[in-house]
């Protein structure tokens, strides 16, 4: 009855149950954190702005991104993935979201940052609608935990406009 | 004669009972595993609710051997979400992040572009020939939760099948020989 196999099985089951419970509690404890991140984005320069032969508009920007995401970090946070997307509406598409820049923040010490960068990914429209286009910048973050549930949210910054003329 | 026969009979009967109860407990294990899996499929709405990360393309967020819990609902796909998708002509689904979304006004159809966090360029080169965007039907789920290391056993078992047979054999032996 109390053979070696039986005891090993009981021990393993108990250990795994405790481990699963601890993982679940670590993940649940993330809900206690109520973060208050802040961000600001400026367009420093429109580098160029052109129409492709297939009729799609493309623009290249230089951005100034300032953000403080320190409050997102908890003891169960492995990293925070942060990215900036341009969001706009066109006659054809009810929503366009184009990621322009992203970064991985590995630790809380790096979560307050300031960066000047040209767009890392190309901002190409599905059509020729970018001239004089009003759009939003959204700074999204995706909290990736050591274990458990992932969290994501964003800050929307509106009132940006692309130039009227190609150059 | 009478005594010996009775003992033999009762022995046979208890052996039969033991064998039957073992078969039932084995069946219980198999069916409850199946029930949990099918239940997960139902509640998450994804045809494969748990996946093992096989590549390094999402490091350091997801490492090889981590498992991901998927969820699928009617909510539209948005940038930043980590989705699992199938490509026509490829067997293995891919876990990557959405970096671009274009949602068509009238139909509500979406064009999606993905990229692995650890890759330098977007995924367009590994889509099917002539495919520029993913559509809703390629997506089999979005990742909502993460558990490290647990999937490593499956990676080992697929790479070294001998370990799989040893494990299954040992488990089977354990179930058959245990009388608890």
Automatic annotation (TrEMBL), chain A:
GO cellular component terms, A-Z = signal peptidase complex
Chief location of this protein within or outside the cell: endoplasmic reticulum
Q: Where in the cell is it found?
A: Endoplasmic reticulum membrane
Work out whether the entry's keyword set contains Transmembrane helix.
Answer: yes
Tell me which UniProt keywords the record has, alphabetically. Answer: Endoplasmic reticulum, Membrane, Signal, Signal-anchor, Transmembrane, Transmembrane helix
Q: Which GO terms describe its biological process?
A: signal peptide processing
Q: Where is the signal peptide?
A: 1-26
So which domain of life are we looking at?
Eukaryota
Q: Does the keyword Transmembrane apply?
A: yes
Q: How does it sit in the membrane?
A: Single-pass type II membrane protein
Which family is it part of? Belongs to the SPCS3 family.
- What function is annotated for this protein? Essential component of the signal peptidase complex (SPC) which catalyzes the cleavage of N-terminal signal sequences from nascent proteins as they are translocated into the lumen of the endoplasmic reticulum. Essential for the SPC catalytic activity, possibly by stabilizing and positioning the active center of the complex close to the lumenal surface.
Its name, as the record gives it, is: Signal peptidase complex subunit 3
UniProt organism field? Eucalyptus globulus (Tasmanian blue gum)
UniProtKB/TrEMBL annotation, chain B:
**Short name of one Pfam family:** Peptidase_S24
Q: Name one GO molecular function term.
A: signal peptidase activity
Residues annotated as domain Peptidase S24/S26A/S26B/S26C: 44-143
Q: Report the catalytic activity.
A: Cleavage of hydrophobic, N-terminal signal or leader sequences from secreted and periplasmic proteins
The EC category is: hydrolase
Source domain of life? Eukaryota
Documented EC number(s):
3.4.21.89
Q: Which GO terms describe its cellular component?
A: signal peptidase complex
SUPFAM superfamilies in alphabetical order: LexA/Signal peptidase (SSF51306)
For this UniProt entry, which segments traverse the membrane?
A: 20-37, 162-179
Protein name (Swiss-Prot/TrEMBL): Signal peptidase complex catalytic subunit SEC11
Q: Which GO terms describe its biological process?
A: proteolysis
Compartments it resides in: Endoplasmic reticulum membrane
Q: Which residues form a coiled coil?
A: none
What function does the entry list? Catalytic component of the signal peptidase complex (SPC) which catalyzes the cleavage of N-terminal signal sequences from nascent proteins as they are translocated into the lumen of the endoplasmic reticulum. Specifically cleaves N-terminal signal peptides that contain a hydrophobic alpha-helix (h-region) shorter than 18-20 amino acids.
Q: How does it sit in the membrane?
A: Single-pass type II membrane protein
Q: Which UniProt keywords apply?
A: Hydrolase, Membrane, Protease, Signal-anchor, Transmembrane, Transmembrane helix
- UniProt similarity note: Belongs to the peptidase S26B family.
Q: Which organism is it from?
A: Eucalyptus globulus (Tasmanian blue gum)
Q: Which InterPro entries match?
A: LexA/Signal_pep-like_sf, Peptidase_S24_S26A/B/C, Peptidase_S26, Peptidase_S26B
